[in-house]
Write a structure and sequence with these properties.
The protein has helices spanning 2-6, 10-29, 32-39, 45-73, 77-90, 100-127, 134-161, 166-171, 174-184, 214-228, 234-242, 250-275, 277-297, 302-330, 336-365, 367-388. The chain has 404 residues and is mainly α. The protein has two domains: 1-191, MFS general substrate transporter like domains (Growth Hormone, Chain: A); 213-390, MFS general substrate transporter like domains (Growth Hormone, Chain: A, Up-down Bundle). α15 (336-365) runs antiparallel to α16 (367-388). The chain crosses the membrane at residues 12-33, 79-106, 169-187, 219-238, 250-268, 280-297, 303-322, 342-362, 368-390.
Length: 404
């Protein structure tokens, strides 16, 4: 395993390091935004909902736009540099805002940056390795991304505990912004092979949808169904609090999830290179359904609750990188940016109705109905994946990675 990891090209590790630094800064800021909004800007939950709704919807749409354009321009680096640069410069400006509409503008800019960089980054990562190392590459990326998600909140807690004002914490994110830009400047474009198809002409109808293979479109249907039941993780933490978990232990509980996802993402995603991606995704969906059934129908406390959240971390490790690797497996080489754009937009846009439906069931029907709905969506998506999405032909000639 270690020898295989060392053999991964420079681009994989560079993209992973950029994501680690960027996510540490992002997750340092993100938990503090509600506190800043209420204690400094004197706004409430309604303003927070407007801000996050507009910001995330914008990011989802731009992931499609950037992905389609990457296939036409055949260049990924400018989008990646611009995306990380815009987000990195926006975060410190939170320190100088005096109203929630100004905060909305900054969060909008931050999510525009995410929308610009995500699909091109995934396309570059997929192009950097051969198909038999693709799962491992995306798993390493997710592991480093989750490492940032652990570091960020812990750093925020340490800075606040030391007495640093919120504004100074936000201003301090200029440092990781500069690091991300410097690292992104070191990225190299993948080597293009002669005769590689590009997204031109009719493929722009419906942003390239018609040019994508039928198997890939069926895969997106399974992704959409699963995401409909995959509501905000905040509901998991709310359920834990309802079950009696002390407020001080809530961040620790989520740290367990992120730590397990960080530790297992690379080995589980790498396993998909040998055993196939579809089976691992189905197994992950089954774990997700089991966790939601246990949380909805049972009353776990203490170590049982931590064990369930640990299983949720296993689900994340088994699916996050593998889902992205399967996108590259199913999409033509010259349409990978478009494929990642549709994948990210589908998952992003479905998150809004997912949380609305789950919240309505949780509040107006029952906890069991809410968690049961999510589990049913996961089981339905697992069935679609198994019966409807044919795995790629591994006997076909494989393109070589262009790792640097």
């Amino acid at each position: 395993m270690w020898q295989t990891l060392r053999a991964l090209p420079r681009t994989v590790w560079l993209i992973g390091l950029i994501s680690l630094v960027n996510d540490a800064a992002s997750d340092l800021v993100y938990p503090l935004v509600p506190l800043y909004l209420t204690s400094v800007l004197m706004a409430g939950p309604r303003a927070l909902g407007i801000i996050e709704g507009i910001a995330e919807a914008t990011a989802s749409l731009l992931k499609l736009v950037s992905g389609v354009w990457v296939d036409r321009a055949r260049r990924t680096k400018p989008w990646i540099v611009a995306g990380y640069g815009l987000a990195g410069l926006a975060r410190p400006l939170i320190a100088v805002v005096s109203s929630w509409p100004a905060l909305l503008a900054i969060r909008f800019a931050d999510r525009v940056g995410k929308g610009l960089r995500t699909s091109p980054r995934d396309a570059l990562l997929a192009a950097s390795v051969p198909p038999d190392r693709r799962g491992l590459a995306f798993g390493v990326h997710r592991a480093m991304d989750n490492a940032g998600a652990v570091i960020g909140p812990l750093l925020a807690a340490a800075l606040l505990a030391s007495g640093m004002p919120l504004r100074d914490v936000f201003l301090g994110t200029l440092v990781p912004a500069g690091v991300c830009l410097a690292l992104a400047a070191l990225l190299r474009e993948p080597t293009r092979t002669a005769g590689q198809p590009t997204a031109t002409g009719p493929s722009w109808n419906l942003a390239g949808w018609g040019a994508l293979p039928a198997t890939y479109r069926r895969y997106l249907a399974a992704v959409a169904l699963f995401t409909l039941g995959n509501s905000s993780n905040m509901f998991l933490l709310l359920r834990a609090a309802d079950l009696g978990l002390q407020q001080a232990q809530v961040p620790l509980l989520w740290a367990v999830v992120s730590a397990i996802a960080m530790a297992l993402s690379a080995p589980l995603s790498g396993l998909s290179d040998r055993l196939g991606r579809r089976g691992l995704l189905v197994a992950g969906h089954l774990i997700y359904a089991a966790v939601y059934v246990a949380l909805g129908l049972g009353t776990p406390t203490g170590w049982a609750l931590y064990a369930l959240f640990a299983c949720y971390g296993v689900f994340l490790a088994a699916t996050e990188g593998v889902e992205k690797a399967l996108v590259a497996d199913l999409a033509p080489v010259g349409l990978r940016g478009t494929a990642y754009g549709w994948y990210h937009m589908t998952a992003g846009l479905m998150l809004l109705p997912a949380s609305m439906v789950f919240g309505a069931l949780y509040e107006h029907v029952s906890v069991q109905a809410a968690f049961g709905f999510s589990a049913a969506c996961a089981l339905g998506a697992a069935g679609l994946l198994w019966r409807w999405v044919a795995p790629p032909d591994r006997s076909a000639p494989q393109e070589r990675g262009s790792g640097t």
